[in-house]
Amino acid sequence: MDIEPTFSKTNPTAGVVGQPMSRVDGWAKVTGRATYSAEYSGLPGLVHAVLKTSDVAHGRVQSIDVSAAQRAPGVLAIFTHQNLPKLAKTPNSPDDRKAFVSSPMGFFPMESDQIFYAGQPVAVVVADTLERAQYAASLLKVSIVPEATISSYLDPKAQLYTPKTVKGMPGVTKRGDAQEAFAGAPVQLTATYTHATIHHNPMEPGATTAHWEGPNRLTVYDSTQGVSETQKTLAAMLGLATEQVRVVCKFIGGGFGCKAWVWPHTTLAALVAKAVGRPVKLVLTRPQQFTSMGHREEQAQTLRLGATREGKLLALIHDKSSTTSPWDDYAETNTRITNMLYALPAFEGTYHLAHANVMTSTATRAPGDMPGAFALESSMDDLAYQLGLDPIQIRLLNYADKDPSNGHPWSSKSLKQCYQRGAELFGWNQRNPKNGQTRAGKTLVGWGMATASYPVHNSQGNARVRLYADGHAVVQAGATDLGTGTYTVMTQVAADSLGLPPENIRFELGDTDLPSTQWSGGSTAAGRVSSSVYLAAQDVWQRLIKVAVQDNKSPLYRAKIEDVMVVKGQLLFRTDPDTGEAFGEVMKRAGMSDIEGSALGRYGSSYEAPRAAANADPNKKDHASEHSMHAFGAHFCEVHVDPELGTVRVTKWVSVIAGGRILNPKTARSQVMGGSIFGIGAALMETTERDPHLARYTNADLAGYHIPVNADIPDMTVEFIDEHDPYVNAMGVKGIGEISIVGTSAAVANAVFHATGRRLRSLPMTPDKVLAAMREPV
Amino acid sequence: MNDFSYTQAASAKEATGIIKEKPQAAYIAGGTTLLDMMKANLLEPPQLVDLNQLPFKGIEQTSDGLRIGAIERMSTVGEHPLVVQQFPAVSQALLLAASPQLRNMASIGGNILQRTRCGYFRDAAFPCNKRVPGSGCPAIAGDHHNLAILGVSDSCIATAYPGDLSVALAAFDAVLTLENQKGKQRRVPITEFYLLPGKTPQRENVLESGELIVAVTIPGAAHARRSTYLKVRERSSYAYALASAAVGLDVQNGTIRTARVALGGVGAQPWRSREAEKVLTGAPATEATFLAAAAAALQGAQPLEHNRFKVELAQNTLVRALQQVA
Amino acid sequence: MATNHDPDLPAPHDEHRRNFLKQSSLLTALALVPSAVVEAAESKLDERVAEAIEKIPLSLKINGKKHKLKVEPRTTLLDLLREDLHLTGTKKGCDYGQCGACTVHVDGLRVNSCLSFAVMHDGQEITTIEGLASGDDLHPMQEAFVKHDGFQCGYCTPGQIMSAVACVREGHAGSEAEIREYMSGNICRCGAYANIVAAIQDVKSGGKKV
User: Is Metal-binding included in the keywords of this UniProt record (chain C) (predicted)?
Assistant: First the structure.
């Protein structure tokens, strides 16, 4: 169709869309009936695989003595690099690698004797029970001849270089002459921000159950954010046709980016399942999770900010240094947000990487934007204080009315409303402009805020609707519900699109047998899948209108198709809305028990350029778009800092987000709170320590790696700005999963600065750093 | 995990008898310390002897003080009225530790015997003098931000006891009742129970092979009734201490008659500071006194690059705790 | 690994459990000292024999149902529930007592089932998330979690709910601060904490039997 229908046109008054409906999968989750990837216990002959991983970070396997393990009770097979069945394609070959849609790491282990990182798989043990597989793995004697190890970009042996590209962005970005503009700026701020290694640590570790139902028929139950991507990549690696691989993920215990790719353990599970001829379950241990599914890389960012004495930005020079693996030029793209967030005439951004003996880092909730915003929003706070301006004022002064990085107008931007509403909810106007003025008992109290933004990633989905004559419907899309509420919000969208109550909708996802849609990540699923579902319902109506106008018993007989509209399941004349009939009547007369429709739903610029979109490649950057599309928001935070004990507690939190149409304020609020808590964790406690000499993590468990607990988190206030965006997709929806973390750690750091007069630029802000800062003069 | 055999011991004699025959066998009560080490293949006992049927139970007043059976669970003891009234610091140390679930599982004896959280000890891939004597201590040149600054040696800088309870027990002169393989009982003050690492960090306490902890007895005292346990950690709950202080003061007319001080999270063992107590005893209960006591407590500290902050943190923690009970 | 027996039939080992244990420990002692494991295998110890030695009879009441089982001593309560009895509602998040996803009630007390050997619970009553609802009627805490959106991905949820029920029963739901502290043994990476607290407060003040 030339012009797609839009939800706001066909449903000017939404029904359940936008209502705080409780989760449709809630019952399954609170009763323990929801089935996760390691819980397909009924598979016939299911056996267990356990990974044995490398103690050292760099070297060559000299020998693996399997004799003891082989004789241990219950052991079916032991695989090492010497007997692992060959893969059709591996990322180790650059040519092969192009075949993969989802493999972030340019290296697959156990193809040779080479060891590149601690925790790299060196063997897989398969046994009849989990206990026996684990024990047998412990009996393997692996001898590795160690080689010189580089632990991170900070290692004296590390060599920094600037790559040509990082994640499709140039290694160096220049807009205007930032160096000259900075040199001439009357106000100059230079600061370096450092970030610890962070791990996603979803509560469900990586888990794969692989079942070969025939020699060329594989079903994989995998804890993945993208069943289609896993399907295609596995098929390429195993040398199968795509349709020969089915991937199922009905429930996933969190992902946050680390389950967006196909990691070695998933492929290994499929490989060994074939070799032993039994269904195989492989679940990562929590320590293995730290070295199996990526992480957010440790990094340093130096920002040089030039401004006028009035506070108008003139230039920003942004340098990022970080660690990458021995094979990949990977860095999260921090300069994306620093280049677009404020009206900034000149920008220069450069990435510096160093190869080290770690696995490749990967997308972690708001990759790039999260750390980028920490640096930028801390610097903006500095600028405000230096010039005696309110932190909101400095941001309004530099408010970008169009996207400075490309000159495009915004598709919608309600950031000013976010600042205003957030300030109201928080009571920001009561703020003492001076630092270090407020005490509560022994603690210092401070307030901070920061801007949030996250881009709309161009993508495309697919959905199918089967409407039954009795007024029930099955709606399907091969997406994943990461806990974001996909099951629920798609039920709501389908209900409104079909004019049915939500309890009459069954929404199915998480299976490659369903219409393939892209992975759930990059805050794209809500926008892409909702528009697919909506348009699939419109497809049903179009098909049904055709039936009705040819049916001489219908009041719509011989009407022109374009003259018929559907309102709440009623097929009606546009010009005479009193004439028409319910869809069930049409179907009954036609002897149809059900009718199916399907549609592609587009999100981002491919939606905006519909003429190009029909054949658009969603994976390609599409510059046909006329608008720059982002969600915006603001976070406000109060902290209590104990200056003697070094502890920082968040005591109050407000987030206001403008994310287009909010499909379900209940699940959306939860998602925003969750993102903020993820950010509070990064701000205050999360760090994975890697030994500087042995390049092995020293706190790879949940006792040593601190994720916020209930006692760390106050009650939180979340609101959404009512925003109408006609350009983003058919539903007017922007994703909110990642904007919820962007700016959060800066809001905390800015509040710490307000409380103490000390600027902490190193995350996490643990007591040792707070105490060190308190020793410094104000 | 290795396979092992399992025996419920009906008596102390039976339990110790098994270890006598098989010194590699291990006792188990709550299991919270043992299971995670077995899962990580750090311990591979051929047999486990379940102590939960032993009569090491009860919380009762005796002439020596409050006697707590070693099999009692942390939650029971932490919430027991006699403990709350007579030893607030002990109760707080128990209830600020671990999580409600773990406190329902872990026994008092097991808590006293818990092992270090040093990441190098916990991961068999690393060298570690405590685990494999002579293999080295990478923590000294590596990640030691939460390791000890008092009582450490060139061989080991672990906070061998990472928990809370024994810190409070050390402050308030608790005495352990032990029973050996011959059925003979002896009493050991908890301050003499733990061993400093020296050149033998693998030896952590004075328990003989097979010897059992039967009970712990804490003498009542005015300074114990006026006591507190303050714990500083990287998150608000469910975390080990960066530094902690168990303190008790008997203050009359503004003068400290008796004082008890122990520090956690900073010592190679629960760190009783008689130096701090000396400063406090007979002195006015003022901030100046507390600062002087804190300085005395940390005088022998041997910090490294990444745990240097603990000197100041421990001092501030101690001062704050003293302020709270003064 | 465990084998389930018909609970109505007399269990051959039940009354002789302690004797059996003694006997088995002697046998396994010979076979399973770590260094000896290899020797045992080398001497072609028959796997069926090994199995007979290793397993111990165990009687448990799980969610009101009696189970007569034989388990390896090293099988944790969590793995018994998930792998052998297919009660997968109880989750494995860390396997080291560091996350709370495996929380169940043993004789009414909340514990981390991952840090406990199944054999140590002979004769005890276990309640898992599957045993909380009565039929199709959700337990008030389950209802409150749905109502207040006390979860996102759902993986920590069974542990949170078992912990929340215990929190109220223990009398530790007196204030928001107390709830937060007594729910801190259950990590939620999705960050549903505020909603979990709201759910517990709702149940606490709701007057229904918890």
Answer: yes
